[in-house]
Recover the amino acids of this structure.
């Protein structure tokens, strides 16, 4: 050749970023619990960033306020319109307000992991990388759910404030059973996340238009959770579903803690609960016990469902699928 | 007949003083910096250039997806800025690694959908799709979901999409990116066959595979930093880099040695090849490396050899490859870029996997 | 001439081929519309899970609202209002989830560039998305309507079909027209739009009176009638399906609401066409038609 090659590409290029400590087999094993905690934390932080990263505080505010408050109004108006006046109307309204405000949190918690699957797979095409990263996929999703839950909890608080200030909801702070409130609130979180993980497992299998699935699922759950009307209205077989549904117990527990004298969504005349147990309404200890039990069962079931879905997704190569239509 | 048809047409591509600046932060990027170019109807034209040279930007402007910042560009006489609608009826484009379409559809359905966008009749669309699927060798995958195709299969499907409307001008942006040797060849052959079927069909290709450009393109422009560095047929470009031609001459005897040849007009140098089996000019076979100012000097050399009674046993040219041309013209670019890279290493990788930073 | 490659008929001159009659351009747009609707309709049959998630679950959700009224011993008429609202919400959800964010999604998939580079108008693509979505959600709405009617024994008293059919079609036109406009707007706004779609559900349900006559919202209801297609459409349909029912008074008659819907449709369609032009101009000058750039 008459033209000398002057490119330095043939010489080995050194860059400090290539420095490493060589292969360390221990890294392949992970460091157990500490690692898990770290990954979980990372996932929560990441989820938080994703949730709040559209930075406009106004938008964020509207998102956390408008949605829960509008759901609340939608229901309160229904009560209001059909003669919800007087003491009875007042009681119903309080019942509905508390249930509906809690719903904001639940909606956020169950939608979080599912949307995270859809978002990462279809929009960012990152799911496969997330999946092969050392962080446990499940934990990452749980983390996203937790951060969503936190946003949803703000919505719940804001909806309650709105109810107090605008709708004249009266809560006697002295009468609130605070320990019970904190306990039931916390115990409700694992089953809510479990439902979210279950939905994520489904969305792992379905197509891009599954965005509305969590919403639809929550809508149906509404029917069997005693959120805005007592379970006793439902036909007995449907009441069974209500009773084994941890959300029912969560809502009932929280509501009972805030309004110890208010109506229960679970027991009452002609309810399945009363027929089965002979008691009018479950007491606090019972509520917590059943919440724990149903919560544990649903968490296990969701984990199992997720594992099955994950395996099937790997078998069929669904992890890097894009399925738009 | 071929000549008549295309001779009356306006240039397939005509570009004058084209500039394109992307108004991005922190400072605007000048992707095209004064391009002048004319591509005749029926030409197979190639664009070569290092990463970031502005090739895709030029293609986007020509395919009406991007407006020029300054200058003019037209396709078959239609201005890219003001007559986009007309251009869109007679062109198509295929990019390497393209992920377009809807995963839920089968290959056949997906292509049919596109055929409808290009205005083919419904029935005609199905027929054309099947025809093209056979032509690109995807017949077996026609009922498979798009989301399950391999990279190569996907690219064949994209090629089929690009040919659905039989464009007058086809823009190919690295169409063989990520394809295996035979798939890449299949794509090349397909494009050639398609182009050859009707006179006047024009192709603009960008690629990083020099051999591909060499094989396909009638003319090539080498661009870097938004400017055309050189333009011509592959042979012209090679000659441009190496004005002298290098020859290896083998004769049965050479009285007086290579010095005799070196004195001839147009001969830059003549020397015994290093691999001569038996040294000395009395050998049965003598190999000489000749460097000529241009090919015309060869006539004189031949005449001199004949007069001296030497019989020519072999004559070979050793021409530079397109890669040599590329390296010669833009090679130093690599060095520049390596420096720049080292300067801001790690500064612009935040668009990678979001967990990455958080992980470590 | 070589017959090596399968080839369509073209003239000998690209200039002739580029010179389309208005009729040909129109036909192409019509075909593009059908082409874009096609994947949506195909998709329905291909992933049967939607029957569960988009028919059964929403039906249960609607039932929850019915039971709220039953628990409150409300007049039976309100059950009918809820069922109609539940059916109509299918269209709204479809607009929100499958129209509003769609162009943005197409952009991130790399489809948008091809759409722009093809000879049809992007309006045709948007209309195709709308028609495809309408077929999907129409199935869902009909299913919810039929199942709920059967289970809760709702009695419709629809007599004025001659008005009901145009009102329904106009409602769809206005809803999907809004969807097309949102799709263009959200393309301009980018990813934040996804959160905005979230915002567009409950608040819109509330001011549209999804579960109660919008008239009961008073002044807010009047504003909704004038601005939100779901509100007007739903109210007009309720007036036609339950004529003279107590609780519905206080809003304009369905004829007037039909006019409002017509006006909305025109406004939305014109706005989305304008927006698309703006988008194209902006995208072409900024270079933002695609996200991935090779
Ligand atoms: N949308 C955009 N916004 C800002 N800058 C851009 C955009 N697109 C391209 N550029 C910049 O313009 C320059 C030319 O890019 P272009 O994609 O045209 O290069 P290319 O020759 O196609 O490179 P490659 O061989 O890597 O594909 C690059 O510096 C690139 O970073
Ligand atoms: Mg490029």
């Amino acid at each position: 050749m008459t033209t000398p090659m002057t490119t330095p590409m043939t010489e080995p290029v050194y860059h400090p970023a290539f420095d490493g400590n060589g292969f360390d087999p221990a890294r392949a094993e992970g460091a157990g619990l500490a690692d898990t905690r770290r990954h979980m934390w990372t996932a929560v932080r990441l989820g938080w960033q994703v949730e709040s990263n559209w930075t406009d505080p106004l938008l964020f505010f509207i998102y956390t306020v408008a949605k829960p408050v509008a759901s609340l109004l939608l229901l309160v108006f229904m009560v209001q319109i059909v003669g919800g006046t007087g003491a009875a109307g007042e009681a119903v309204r309080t019942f509905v307000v508390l249930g509906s405000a809690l719903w904001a949190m639940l909606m956020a918690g169950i939608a979080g992991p599912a949307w995270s699957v859809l978002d990462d797979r279809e929009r960012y095409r990152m799911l496969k990388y997330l999946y092969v990263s050392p962080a446990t996929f499940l934990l990452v999703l749980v983390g996203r759910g937790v951060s969503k839950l936190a946003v949803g909890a703000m919505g719940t608080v804001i909806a309650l404030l709105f109810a107090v200030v605008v709708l004249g909801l009266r809560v006697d702070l002295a009468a609130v059973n605070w320990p019970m409130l904190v306990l039931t609130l916390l115990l409700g979180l694992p089953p809510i996340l479990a439902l979210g993980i279950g939905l994520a497992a489904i969305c792992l299998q379905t197509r891009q238009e599954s965005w509305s699935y969590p919403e639809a699922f929550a809508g149906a759950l509404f029917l069997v959770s005693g959120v805005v009307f007592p379970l006793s209205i439902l036909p007995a077989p449907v009441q069974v579903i209500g009773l084994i549904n941890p959300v029912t117990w969560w809502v009932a527990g929280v509501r009972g803690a805030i309004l110890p004298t208010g109506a229960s969504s679970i027991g009452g005349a002609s309810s399945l609960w009363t027929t089965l147990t002979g008691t009018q309404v479950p007491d606090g200890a019972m509520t917590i016990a059943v919440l724990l039990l149903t919560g544990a069962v649903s968490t296990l079931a969701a984990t199992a469902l997720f594992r099955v879905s994950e395996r099937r997704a790997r078998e069929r190569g669904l992890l890097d699928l894009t399925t738009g239509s | 007949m071929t000549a008549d048809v295309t001779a009356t047409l306006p240039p397939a591509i005509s570009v004058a003083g084209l500039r394109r600046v992307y108004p991005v932060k922190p400072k605007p990027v000048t992707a095209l910096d004064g391009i002048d170019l004319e591509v005749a109807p029926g030409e197979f034209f190639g664009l070569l250039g290092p990463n970031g040279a502005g090739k895709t930007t030029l293609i986007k402007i020509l395919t009406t997806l991007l407006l020029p910042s300054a200058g003019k560009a037209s396709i078959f006489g239609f201005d890219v800025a003001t007559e986009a609608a007309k251009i869109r009826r007679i062109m198509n484009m295929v990019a390497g690694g393209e992920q377009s379409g809807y995963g839920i559809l089968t290959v056949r359905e997906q292509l049919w959908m596109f055929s409808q966008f290009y205005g083919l009749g419904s029935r005609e669309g199905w027929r054309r799709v099947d025809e093209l699927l056979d032509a690109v060798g995807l017949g077996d995958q026609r009922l498979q979901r798009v989301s399950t195709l391999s990279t190569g299969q996907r690219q064949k499907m994209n090629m089929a999409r690009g040919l659905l409307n039989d464009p007058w001008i086809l823009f190919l942006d690295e169409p063989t990116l990520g394809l295996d040797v035979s798939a890449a060849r299949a794509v090349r052959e397909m494009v050639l066959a398609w182009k050859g079927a009707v006179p006047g069909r024009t192709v603009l290709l960008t690629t990083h595979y020099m051999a591909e450009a060499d094989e396909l393109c009638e003319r090539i422009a080498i661009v870097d930093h938004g400017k055309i560095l050189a333009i011509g047929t592959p042979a012209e470009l090679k000659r441009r880099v190496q004005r002298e031609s290098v020859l290896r001459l083998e004769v049965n005897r050479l009285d007086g040695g290579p010095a005799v040849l070196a004195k001839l007009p147009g001969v830059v140098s003549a020397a015994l090849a290093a691999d001569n089996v038996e040294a000395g000019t009395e050998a049965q076979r003598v190999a000489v490396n000749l460097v000529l100012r241009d090919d015309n000097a060869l006539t004189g050399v031949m005449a001199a050899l004949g007069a001296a009674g030497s019989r020519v046993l072999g004559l070979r040219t050793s021409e530079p490859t397109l890669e040599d041309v590329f390296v010669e013209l833009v090679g130093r670019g690599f060095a520049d870029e390596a420096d720049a890279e080292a300067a801001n290493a790690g500064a612009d990788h935040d668009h990678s996997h979001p967990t990455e930073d958080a992980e470590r | 001439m070589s017959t090596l490659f399968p080839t369509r008929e073209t003239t000998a001159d690209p200039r002739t081929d580029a010179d389309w009659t208005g009729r040909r351009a129109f036909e192409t747009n019509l075909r593009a519309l059908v082409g874009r609707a096609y994947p949506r309709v195909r998709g329905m049959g291909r992933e049967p899970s939607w029957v569960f998630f988009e028919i059964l679950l929403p039906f249960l959700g609607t039932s929850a609202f019915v039971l709220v009224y039953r628990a409150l011993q409300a007049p039976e008429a309100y059950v009918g209002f809820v069922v109609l609202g539940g059916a109509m919400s299918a269209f709204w959800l479809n607009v929100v989830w499958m129209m509003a964010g769609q162009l943005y999604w197409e952009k991130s998939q790399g489809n948008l560039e091809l759409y722009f580079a093809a000879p049809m108008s992007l309006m045709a693509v948007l209309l195709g998305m709308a028609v495809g979505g309408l077929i999907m959600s129409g199935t869902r709405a009909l299913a919810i309507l039929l199942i709920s009617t059967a289970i809760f024994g709702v009695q419709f008293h629809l007599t004025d079909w001659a008005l009901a059919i145009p009102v329904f079609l106009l409602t769809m036109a206005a809803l999907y027209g809004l969807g097309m406009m949102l799709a263009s707007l959200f393309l301009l706004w980018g990813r934040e739009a996804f959160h905005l779609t979230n915002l567009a559900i409950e608040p819109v349900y509330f001011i549209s009176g999804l579960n109660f006559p919008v008239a009961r919202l008073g002044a807010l209801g009047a504003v909704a009638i004038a601005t939100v297609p779901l509100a007007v459409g739903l109210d007009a349909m309720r007036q036609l399906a339950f004529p003279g029912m107590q609780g519905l008074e206080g809003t304009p008659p369905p004829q007037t609401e039909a006019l409002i819907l017509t006006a909305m449709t025109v406004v939305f369609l014109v706005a989305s066409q304008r927006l698309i032009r703006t988008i194209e101009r902006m995208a072409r000058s900024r270079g933002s038609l695609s996200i991935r750039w090779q």
